[in-house]
Write a structure and sequence with these properties.
Layout lengths: L3 E5 L3 H13 L3 E5 L5 H7 L4 E5 L7 H8 L7 E5 L4 H9 L4 E4 L4 H15 L4 E4 L2 E4 L4 E4 L2 E2 L4 H12 L7 H8 L9 H17 L3 E7 L3 E8 L1
Helix pairs in contact: 1-5, 6-8
Length: about 220
């Protein structure tokens, strides 16, 4: 996973949609519905970012953000249906890193999360057996040598490498790299995996990064040959 994202939203259906999209994007989302629960949770956990609704039961998002900023620099994206400019400015002056208004596309929220994490330097870089995946640049290297991956190849490798040892079916990988549900064959994954293995092997012949399990799927588990 890229990092734990706290979703503070009292509309249950919306919170579940955001959770599902963030999980599909490789994040580890956790949801809270009451503003009074946020600060204690943040003090006990280390989220990579907080999606914070303004209108909450228990305690407003403004108050929550103000207190969080007294002890943490965790990135905060304010989420609200209130579009008055004073609210927008106040939210940012309280230390919010971005502001998004309802209604919105869940994909837009995921894009904003990624953008804020890149801007704040919170986006993770994955390293394994000489392989380095830099998500902010969509760049994969082995011992400093660029693999020249396409965007789809990088996304696929990043997803596998973010969850080493876990087995993913073709359909799960399809859902990850083609979230717009385009109509393509699940054998497309086999082609991407084949190209990934070829590019990895061209630089590191002594390591097998992607394992296939016949009839099940694929997993990332670097194994020296």
């Amino acid at each position: 996973m890229h990092g734990k994202i706290l979703v503070v939203e009292d509309e249950q259906i919306l919170a579940e949609v955001l959770r599902d999209y963030l999980k599909q994007a490789g994040f580890d989302p956790f949801c809270l519905a009451d503003g009074s629960d946020v600060v204690p949770w943040v003090r006990e956990n280390t989220p990579a970012l907080i999606l914070l609704d303004l209108m909450l039961p228990g305690r407003s998002g403004f108050d929550v953000c103000r207190e969080i900023r007294s002890f943490s620099s965790v990135p905060v994206i304010m989420v609200t249906a209130r579009i008055e400019e004073i609210d927008r400015l106040l939210g940012l002056e309280l230390g919010a890193d971005d502001y998004i208004c309802k209604p919105f596309s869940p994909r837009e929220v995921v894009a904003r999360v990624r953008a804020v994490l890149r801007r704040t330097g919170s986006e993770e870089t994955i390293r394994a057996a000489g392989l380095v995946l830099d998500e902010s640049r969509y760049r994969a290297t082995i011992d400093g040598c660029d693999l020249g991956l396409t965007a789809v190849e990088f996304t696929l490798l990043l997803y596998l490498a973010s969850n080493p040892g876990l087995i993913y079916s073709r359909q799960q990988l399809m859902d990850r790299i083609y979230p717009d549900e385009r109509n393509v064959s699940d054998r497309t994954i086999d082609t991407h995996i084949k190209n990934l293995r070829r590019k990895l092997a061209s630089v590191a012949r002594e390591a097998d990064f992607i394992q296939s399990l016949y009839g099940i799927g694929y997993k990332f588990e670097p194994t020296p040959l």
